[in-house]
Specification:
Strand order of the largest sheet: 1-2
Strand content: under 5%
Largest sheet: 2 strands, antiparallel
Low-confidence stretches: none
Shape: elongated
Oligomer: single chain
Number of domains: 1
Organism: Alkalibacillus flavidus
Number of strands: 2
Distance between the termini: 28 Å
Radius of gyration: 15 Å
Protein name: DUF3102 domain-containing protein
Helix content: 40-55%
Number of helices: 5
Order of helices and strands: HHHHEEH
Mean pLDDT: 87
């Protein structure tokens, strides 16, 4: 998606392209954010995650992605061990 947006379309055409392939703009934005933030990391760590969890991990500061964090229940977990609900509780990291 990012390649298409930046290389294959004229300015302002990305939205029309997304409509033609039936992808919502917010979903496309999440995929691009995930690609931008996680492309250098070991993506095999995240293969079992859905879009929302990946997006929450991608929006964490890079230095916070591997560190243990305390969940609301008091457990220590790294982001790749957390549920979407637990990740949402740590969006302010």
């Amino acid at each position: 998606m990012k390649h298409v947006k930046e290389n294959d379309l004229a300015h302002g055409e990305f939205g029309k392209w997304l409509e033609s392939v039936e992808i919502d703009r917010s979903v496309a934005a999440k995929f691009i954010k995930i690609y931008d933030e996680l492309k250098e990391e070991d993506v095999s760590t995240y293969t079992h995650f859905g879009l929302n969890a990946l997006h929450l991990i991608a929006t964490l500061p890079a230095d916070e992605r591997d560190k243990p964090h305390e969940t609301a229940s008091g457990e220590q977990k790294t982001p790749d061990e957390m549920t979407v609900k637990e990740l949402r509780g740590h969006q302010s990291l």
